[in-house]
Every structure is written in structure tokens, then in C-alpha cells.
Write a structure and sequence with these properties.
Elements lengths: L5 H5 L3 H16 L8 H7 L8 E5 L7 H4 L7 E5 L7 H13 L4 E7 L3 H7 L7 H6 L2 H6 L14 H22 L1 H8 L4 E7 L6 E3 L3
Parallel strand pairs: 1-2, 1-3, 3-4
Antiparallel strand pairs: 4-5
């Protein structure tokens, strides 16, 4: 499998980009990964890169976008931060990826049993982690059930996963409200901004409806 070129990237629509990720995740789950020579792709991309998607995911060691979507060198831009939220730097990176480098999809990918979300649920405090977790706290507050404080902790994995999904939706809202560049591109049909959740127990990505 060859790396993407400017011509092959141009033929990919936002909807096609979603399908490419879905197919890649299916290959990953079925242990039928595409036959690619990564060093050949290094050579293919030495003079330029033409990825089709930008993926914002958590730093969790189990959630490597390149692996779980079975992608190679030059296929995707991968932004990672604990809790997969956006800030000015990540938004700027996404704007570069879409407006200047031509990606057709922004995927915000949360995952089950997220440690950052657990920390936000428990109101953990530790150095710079305190400020990071404050970015996820709005999602904790937005999930209203269960109402009993005893059930709103990291010990309740269903609550944790509900918060993780809510955090994805709120991150998408933040992308649209905080980046006029990406919002305009989406409104014009140039890109899709989409969310999804990765299940660490079985390797499956569930895509949210656009």
C-alpha cells in the first residue's frame, strides 16, 4: 500500500474519510491489517505529506490512532492529550491540518475507562494535572445522572464512560465555537467534524452520528 499523494488526497471526500477509518478499524479488530511497507512510505512522503484525517485522541497507551485505524506513514495527523480536549495550540494544529494540509475529517476520539476522566470525576489534584483535569470537569457536571455523589466517582465505570462520551461532544462544540476556520470549512462541506468512542476491551470504535 502506497502513501497518499496530492492527487489521491484530493479525491477523498469527508464521507470517504470516515469510511476509510471505519474500514481500518474493522481490519484491526479482525487482525487483517493492510499489507504496507512503512519504510517505503517513509520514502514516499519524504517530499511531502497528504493525510486524509486529523484525529484528536487521549495519550492513553492503548489508544494509538495509527494502530486502531490501521493507518500508515502519512495517512493521518494525530493530536494527543490526556482527556482529548482542545486548547489554542490543538485548535491551531487542526487548522493547519485541514486548511493548509488538506485533511477532510476531524475526529475527536474518546475511550472507555479513561484515566483522565476518572481523575476529573474524583476531582484529583496533582501539579499541572489539576489544570488539565479542569478542562474535563464541565463534562462531569453536564452528566446529571446519577445524582447521588457516592455514584459520581471513578468507581462507577458507567458514569465514567458517560462523562467520556459527553466530553467528546463538548469538545466538538468547542472546536466549532472556538475555531472560525474549521467551522467555516465544515459549513462549506470541505470537512466533517465527528466524534467517536474506542472500547479498550475489544478494539472497536463507535462513531457518533454527524
Amino acid at each position: 500500500m502506497k502513501a497518499l499523494t496530492k492527487e489521491t488526497q484530493a479525491k477523498i471526500t469527508p464521507q470517504t474519510a470516515v469510511q476509510l477509518l471505519k474500514e481500518g478499524n474493522q481490519r484491526f479488530q479482525q487482525k487483517l491489517m493492510a499489507d504496507r511497507d512503512l519504510l517505503d512510505q517513509v520514502n514516499d512522503t519524504k517530499s511531502g505529506q497528504y493525510p486524509f484525517a486529523t484525529i484528536l485522541s487521549c495519550i492513553d497507551s492503548r489508544v494509538s490512532s495509527e494502530l486502531i485505524f490501521d493507518q500508515g506513514i502519512g495517512d493521518i495527523f494525530s493530536a494527543r492529550v490526556a482527556g482529548n480536549f482542545v486548547n489554542e495550540d490543538i485548535l491551531g494544529s487542526m487548522e493547519f491540518a485541514c486548511k493548509l494540509a488538506g485533511t477532510k475529517l476531524v475526529l475527536v476520539l474518546g475511550h472507555t475507562a479513561c484515566g483522565a476522566v476518572k481523575g476529573a470525576c474524583d476531582d484529583a489534584k496533582l501539579g499541572n494535572l489539576t489544570a488539565l483535569l479542569s478542562k474535563i470537569k464541565p463534562a462531569v457536571e453536564a452528566v446529571t445522572e446519577p445524582s447521588d455523589a457516592a455514584d459520581r466517582t471513578s468507581k462507577n465505570i458507567d458514569f465514567v464512560n458517560d462523562v467520556a462520551a459527553k466530553n467528546v461532544h463538548m469538545t466538538i462544540d468547542n472546536i466549532r465555537t472556538q475555531s472560525s476556520v474549521l467551522k467555516e470549512m465544515e459549513d462549506n462541506g470541505e470537512i466533517l467534524i465527528l466524534g467517536g468512542m474506542y472500547d479498550i476491551s475489544n478494539g472497536k470504535v463507535t462513531f457518533f452520528e454527524a
